[in-house]
Amino acid sequence: MSTTAGNVIRCRAAVAWEAGKPLVIEEVEVAPPQAMEVRLKILYTSLCHTDVYFWEAKGQNPMFPRIYGHEAGGIVESVGEGVTDLQPGDHVLPVFTGECKECDHCKSEESNMCRLLRINTDRGVMIGDGQSRFSINGKPIYHFVGTSTFSEYTVCHIGSVAKINPLAPLDKVCVLSCGISTGLGATLNVAKPPKGSTVAIFGLGAVGLAAAEGARIAGASRIIGVDLNSNRFDEAKKFGVTEFINPKDYAKPVQEVLAEMTNGGVDRSVECTGNITAMISAFECVHDGWGVAVLVGVPHKDAEFKTHPMNLLNERTLKGTFFGNYKPRSDLPSVVEKYMNKELEVEKFITHSVPFSEINKAFDLMLKGEGIRCIINMEG
After folding, report:
1. Which residues are CB-neighbours of 114 under 8 A, at least 6 positions away?
2. What is the dihedral of CA 169, 160, 357, 60, to 10 degrees?
3. To which H or E segment does residue 319 belong?
4. Of the residues 34, 80, 329, 348, which has the fewest C-beta atoms closer than 10 A?
5. Residues catalogued as catalytic
6. CA distance 138 to 136
7. Does the CA dihedral 176-182-185-189 come out positive or negative?
8. Other beta carbons within 10 Å of 290
9. Alcohol dehydrogenase-like C-terminal domain location, by residue (predicted)?
10. Contact status, residue 258 vs residue 200, Cβ threshold 8 Å
11. What is the DSSP letter of 178?
12. Euclidean distance between CA atoms 372 and 365, whole angstroms
């Protein structure tokens, strides 16, 4: 790979030219990494709902042409000036957020919201010089959340790349770079359910199932899944969900149903939908005195969270989390080790796989609501 260092690489990338239109496999030019950047050879990537949301461009600034993708695994091809933590050949996970290790957030043990590199969906260029590293016939193609993994090669800021165990299979652990870690960390790092506790999970998509997996690992005795789609329950059992509630089946609010099922409320709840009604229910369903609710889902920009202050005064705790409170460079390697030690099961999240040439099939599956994660093999 070293023969390409310092040179422009021509490779395939799936380019989104217009909102909601199928991606087109194009030959793109990928410039060498600049200071504090690395160029990665992406081996496997997967599709996350965030990619689809911004590709559809409903409700945010459309930015096209663009290369999406942010859940992936790859190998460092070359490094830019000043990079000492990574070298060619390292196995890595690129991440949509980052860890500069210098700002007040990175220096805080309590935060992972790096001031320099936290997610910015409106930035389509590199943070160092404001330029794109992708082009077609000299015309720039925009980046997405600093990763753009729907390309055989991509350039990332050093702070958005986690070096992992080279023995870890990239076609499996690539899913740990976004949604799975978000849900897992929301439970293990933020909700922290005691062994034997009851946990409610609102929303049984990939993030919610990962939150359930976290509750299973923590030793929860009851894991109650809440979802408007009853077809999700059978799949959810594989992730430790023991009971299922569809709010549509009840005349009363779901928080009241949960309180009756659990003698006053659950010990912990994790909300993974972004629906404001579900967020309020997730808070109001926890037990007074010790209950903790954690919000993960991203709500509508105009949403308002309304609850009676007595719910807080009666010693319920409401928390929010971003990326499961994991610092990408410091903490993701240990999440990969959980998989390597067979503590965390990743395979059950992966329901489909397609070759890169058929990447639009992955979009079709997600739009139909089929499966959990689809792996895209960049060699295909």
Report:
1. 97, 98, 99, 100, 103, 105, 106, 159
2. 140
3. strand 317-320
4. 348
5. 48-50, 70-71, 100, 103, 106, 114, 118, 178, 373
6. 5
7. positive
8. 14
9. 206-337
10. yes
11. T
12. 9
Q: Report the C-alpha gap between 316 and 191 in whole angstroms.
A: 12
196 conformational bin, left if phi > 0, alpha if psi -120 to 50, beta if neither: left
* 211 in Cβ contact with 272 (< 8 Å): yes
What are the structure tokens assigned to 57, written together? 């461009």
Integer Cα distance of 306 and 296 in angstroms: 17
Residue with tokens 């799936």: 14
Cα separation, 81 vs 14, whole angstroms: 28
Q: What are phi and psi of 311, to 5 degrees?
A: -60, -35
Give the confidence band of 2 by pLDDT, cuts at 50, 70, 90.
Answer: low
State the Cα–Cα distance between residues 176 and 95, nearest whole angstrom.
9
Average pLDDT score over residue span 100-106: 98
**Tens-place pLDDT, residues 263-277:** 999 999 999 999 999
Nearest to 210 by CA among 193, 187, 232: 187
Give the separation between CA 225 and CA 298, rounded to whole angstroms: 19
φ and ψ at 95, to 5 degrees?
Answer: -130, 140
